[in-house]
TrEMBL record:
Record-linked InterPro entries: HTH_HxlR (IPR002577), WH-like_DNA-bd_sf (IPR036388), WH_DNA-bd_sf (IPR036390)
Pfam families assigned to the protein according to its UniProt record, in alphabetical order: HxlR
Protein name as catalogued: Helix-turn-helix transcriptional regulator
Presence of the UniProt keyword Transcription regulation in the record: yes
Length: 123
């Protein structure tokens, strides 16, 4: 690594590897709803309509697609209960919890960004 004014800069290979990792993460978590869905289901398991009511603005078609994507990638589990009518409950997997620090950082950054925008609008 090179050092510029006491700051260690990554090598070209480290940058390339880091970029690949970020691209992979964004590919899996892309879109405006996936992290919100994971956060909702980490709080508690929910049925489809409960999720639909909690996440304002998502359409049923988009919700169905996003849930399938999250299930495919191991972030959520779809539980089917055969009662008089079939009940389907979605819940976060332990793998979802690996995003805890990522979600916390995004939340903190979002709050900071919102404040920055408010400040710039006051000028």
């Amino acid at each position: 690594m090179k050092t510029i004014e006491k700051e260690i800069l990554p090598t070209k290979q480290e940058c390339t590897d880091s970029l690949k990792n970020v691209i992979d993460a964004l590919y899996v978590l892309n879109g405006k709803w996936k992290i919100a869905l994971i956060l909702s289901l980490v709080q508690s398991p929910k049925r489809f309509n409960e999720i639909l009511k909690q996440i304002d603005g998502i359409s049923p078609k988009v919700l169905a697609k996003e849930l399938k994507d999250l299930e495919f990638n191991g972030f959520i589990k779809r539980n089917v209960y055969e009662t008089t009518s079939i009940n389907i409950v979605y819940e976060a997997t332990d793998y979802s919890l690996t995003l805890k620090s990522v979600i916390a950082e995004l939340s903190a950054w979002g709050e900071q960004h919102r404040e920055k925008i408010k400040q710039s609008m006051r000028k």
